[in-house]
């Protein structure tokens, strides 16, 4: 293969590397971030309930977490192509985003009982998201 042919092959592979990620690649990459935001929400919820962080900080952090999770969900929706694993992740990301929004609202109204109830749901959501990420890595 001559220089020109090699250049074309390299250019094509670079374009492929820069192109949109597959749903599985997104679940693998973004799933870590989404799970981290869920863990952050657990930490913020617990410390807010203990009175160790200000309400404004807790509410702002929970809103940021929800925004980031929603962004991951929207990105995955664009490339899902009906793939069952992607659809499951979209559902889970949406559930988590709604949970985070409800938590932020409950913090804002100083509803400690609601925050405690919502906080109890976060570990299950995070576990489900980590399981989807593991599935995307294993190809299953």
pLDDT below 50 for ≥5 consecutive residues: which ranges? 5-18
* % residues in beta strands: under 5%
Q: Secondary-structure element sequence?
A: HHHHH
Main sheet overview: none
- Cα radius of gyration in angstroms: 19 Å
Structural class: mainly alpha
Structure keywords:
mainly alpha; 140 residues; 86% helix
Short description:
This protein is an all-alpha fold. The chain is 86% helix and 0% strand. Residues 5-18 have low confidence and may be disordered.
Describe what this molecule looks like in 3D.
This protein is an all-alpha fold. Helices cover 86% and strands 0% of the residues. It has helices at residues 3-18, 23-49, 55-79, 84-108, 112-138. α2 packs antiparallel against α3, α2 runs antiparallel to α5 (112-138) and α3 packs antiparallel against α4.
Question: How would the blueprint of this fold be written?
Answer:
Layout: H1 3-18, H2 23-49, H3 55-79, H4 84-108, H5 112-138
Helix pairs in contact: 2-3, 2-4, 2-5, 3-4, 4-5
